Amino acid sequence: MSTAPESTAPEPARAAPGVTGYDELPDAIVVVGADGHVRACNAAAQRILGVARQELIGLPLADALPLADAAGRDWWQVTNPFGGLSTRTRQVERVLQLPDGRYVLATASYVRAERGAPVDRLVVCLRGTEARDRAEREHADLIATVAHELRSPLTGIKGFTATLLSKWDRFTEDQRRLMLEAVDSDADRLTRLIAELLDVARIDAGRLELRRVPTDLAALVRKRVEARVVAGVDHERFVVEAADDLPEVWVDPDKMGQVLDNLIENALRHGDGTITVTLRQDPDGLVMAVTDQGPGIPPGKAHRIFGRFWKGSDRGGTGLGLYVVNGIVEGHGGRIALVPPPEGGARFVVVLPVDDPTADIL
């Protein structure tokens, strides 16, 4: 009876173990067995650690993940994941350093067969610090911007009040009134800045409060434009064009007035010529457009205008105005877009729903 000859063909190479279902995650996942050696990892682990998956599998924990704390100590010796208290379930996220100097955010979870049992698996999650660093830079930018914007009106208020207190009798009634008007104007500027910062915090937290009532938006536009004229802007710079028989819209009039103030201020600060505010109705809702005749916004920057700290020029401002405008409009269920007019300049178009948002609830 003959036997089949042994096959001399090499066995197909086996893929290195991965972490099933986790290769799509941006965070690195590394699973370490009870023996302290790497059992599996996902694709992000290869990218963040700079080591191929095949080389990571089977390595001792300290060799596969050579992480050090701020004092330069081996993190695994410090935390002793397979020893220590049996009640531990995880290590909170910490900033640790790789041998090449890069920093990562690391967490570790202790998997046990039952409470109090030895660690069966250690699951380590690593992520880059880019998002955190970007957030910290944004916070630093916000602090610097706010400090700069607060300093200017506070300097004016302090200067005028100190002068009036020390030299009151030296000034005429008209001079005193002029200085007090300047103080009042700077106080209003501070109030607007603080309100803007509070709105940014509420928008970020998803807690923007809106008190909606039926509102005549055309009347609100005329009121906000008139306020600018009273403040000293030439009335010939404004044109308001409202279609007949416009319906009322369910909006928070104070917040929508803030939207108008920001868009008009943006047009005054960065635009030139006539500022035109138009109102009309179409199937999508009530459409309001604010158009100026300035240089417009370069196409390459158009996608950034509703983000934080965007500034169209170096003419001052916090760079938060359009971010707040976008948040308020979206909070009303509307949308805002930059639609440059053919003749040049900038045009911001706001579309607001007309229907009562509570109608479906009642």
Itemize the secondary structure elements and their pairings.
Elements: E1 28-33, E2 38-41, H1 43-49, H2 53-56, H3 61-64, H4 75-79, E3 90-97, E4 103-112, E5 119-128, H5 130-167, H6 173-205, E6 213-215, H7 217-230, E7 238-242, E8 249-251, H8 253-270, E9 275-282, E10 285-291, H9 321-331, E11 335-338, E12 347-352
Parallel strand pairs: 7-9
Antiparallel strand pairs: 1-2, 1-5, 3-4, 4-5, 6-8, 9-10, 10-12, 11-12
Helix pairs in contact: 5-6, 6-9, 7-8, 8-9
The top level CATH class name of the largest domain: Alpha Beta
Total strands? 12
Count of distinct structural domains? 3
Q: What share of the residues does DSSP label as strand, in percent?
A: 15-25%
Q: Terminal Cα separation, in Å?
A: 88 Å
Helical content band: 25-40%
Overall SS class: alpha+beta
CATH topology of the largest domain: Heat Shock Protein 90
Spell out the CATH superfamily of the largest domain: Histidine kinase-like ATPase, C-terminal domain
| Order of helix and strand elements from N to C terminus | EEHHHHEEEHHEHEEHEEHEE
Widest β-sheet, arrangement of strands: 2-1-5-4-3
Rg from alpha-carbon coordinates: 31 Å
Shape: elongated
Largest sheet: 5 strands, antiparallel
Q: What average pLDDT do the residues reach? A: 84
Number of helices: 9
Structural features:
single chain; 362 residues; alpha+beta; Beta-Lactamase; Helix Hairpins; Heat Shock Protein 90; 5-stranded antiparallel β-sheet; 9 helices; 12 strands; 37% helix; elongated
Task: Give an overview in words.
A hairpin with a 2-residue loop joins strand 9 and strand 10. The chain has three domains: 101 residues, PAS domain (Beta-Lactamase); 74 residues, Helix Hairpins (Orthogonal Bundle), CATH 1.10.287.130; 140 residues, Heat Shock Protein 90 (2-Layer Sandwich). The chain has a five-stranded antiparallel β-sheet. The chain has a five-stranded mixed β-sheet with strand order 7-9-10-12-11. It has a two-stranded antiparallel ribbon with strand order 6-8. By secondary structure, the chain is of the alpha+beta class. Helices cover 37% and strands 20% of the residues. Helix 5 runs antiparallel to helix 6, helix 6 crosses helix 9 and helix 7 crosses helix 8. The radius of gyration is 31 Å and the shape is elongated.
